[in-house]
Design brief:
globular; 18% strand; four-stranded mixed β-sheet; alpha/beta; single chain
Length: 249
């Protein structure tokens, strides 16, 4: 249950439009629920503003559907990341209206009442087209968490004029997520141009010496640009969650 819904319940009790017992019934739902194979944290929304997100990797379609259905019953929406294609049909049957994004490998069921908008815009900058799956995971996550989005695509340092031509977009952002593989240099470049937080997402895109993302990870961790922080390899979800906290804090 979102904090806004709790506030509304308390206001209704205060003005007499909602009986105390009805409000207590809504508030007394168990904070966690065991399904045997999973224990759902239903109070994640109250503490952090967004429900527990389901990581689809390693889970069977039946497990994903069971968890998603229980989270959906609380009315705050559902987000599944790293969703395997074979689980999509079962999820769509169980939760009509869920939005599957094949590029991002996500499924999103929007809540009846969307989360409040943050203070600014999340700008997602990708070095190359091959980085788009990770960038799209970040975009879906940020959108689900109530962030306004902008995108700059395929503006890596091999053609840096493409990035510099869009300084207006960089300067108008509230938080910038930079998604890059290969050498990962784009995060440092963006970090040296702007005054807002920059979150680097190294991707596993690249030739052998990129070591499946280790090379861009180390480049971003060693950035000489102040204000650049880094999440794990291919972790578009983590970058977007951090950006949402910055803009909603």
């Amino acid at each position: 249950m979102r904090r806004e819904r709790v506030r509304d319940l308390l206001a209704q009790v205060a003005d007499g439009s909602l009986a105390v017992d009805r409000a207590l019934e809504s508030l007394s739902l168990e904070p966690s629920e065991s399904l045997g194979f999973a224990t759902i944290d239903h109070h994640r929304t109250l503490r952090q503003g967004f429900p527990e997100v389901i990581f689809g990797g390693g889970k069977t379609p039946e497990q994903i559907v069971a968890i998603a259905a229980r989270i959906a019953e609380r009315g705050d929406g559902v987000l599944v990341t790293r969703l395997a294609a074979q689980a999509v049909e079962s999820l769509e049957e169980a939760l009509p209206g869920i939005e599957y994004n094949a590029l991002a490998r996500t499924a999103l069921l929007r809540p009846g009442n969307p989360p409040p908008a943050g203070r600014g815009t999340v700008l997602i900058v990708t070095a190359g087209t091959s980085d788009l799956p990770v960038a799209e995971e970040a975009a879906v996550t940020a959108d689900a968490m109530g962030c306004r989005l902008e995108r700059l695509t395929d503006v890596g340092v091999a053609g840096i004029h493409r990035l510099l031509a869009r300084r207006d977009v960089l300067d108008s952002a509230g938080v910038i997520i930079v998604v890059a593989g290969m050498d990962g240099a784009l995060a440092s470049v963006v970090g040296g141009l702007v005054r807002v937080p920059v979150i680097g997402v190294p991707t596993s895109v690249g030739y052998g010496a990129a070591f499946n993302g280790i090379a861009p990870l180390l480049t971003m961790l060693n950035s000489c640009a102040a204000g650049v922080t880094v999440v794990n390899i291919d972790n578009g979800f983590g970058a977007a969650a951090a950006a949402a906290r910055i803009l909603h804090g």
